[in-house]
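B., you asked whether I could sanity-check this one before it goes into the benchmark set. Here's the sequence:
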Amino acid sequence: MSFESTTAPGSTKSPHFQFPDADLIIRTSDKVTFHVHKTILSFASRVFRDMLSLDNINPPFTSEQRVVDVSEESGLMDATLRYFYPLSRPILKDLLPIILLLEVADKYDIPVITFSLEDLLLVTEVAKSSPGRTYALARKF
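And here's what the prediction gave me:
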């Protein structure tokens, strides 16, 4: 099981992340846009913080919003952003989505996802379904 797109067929906008006061657009590999806030991403992710701090050194010539293209698909980006904003977090019943989120948390240096998923693996039955893979995850992350 992987993350499913949360957009309507043919849509290119995330239904949950279209904040009118957004100052950053994240565009996923499947061309879905997420209108989010630089400040929130900077607090949640050290990689985004460092990347966005470059805007302060070289401010854009226009007042248009910045667009950041990412290699993740929209379902995974939606799940990731739910850890940043006060929205319901994804329900994770299989190990594969947990692995994908841990990889994103590692790539973008997002401690809140790592800590949340560690707790999830400790208190739920997900880890018991595949103890070998769970051990390998613990060693990797």
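One thing to flag: Residues 91-140 form one domain. Otherwise nothing jumped out at me.
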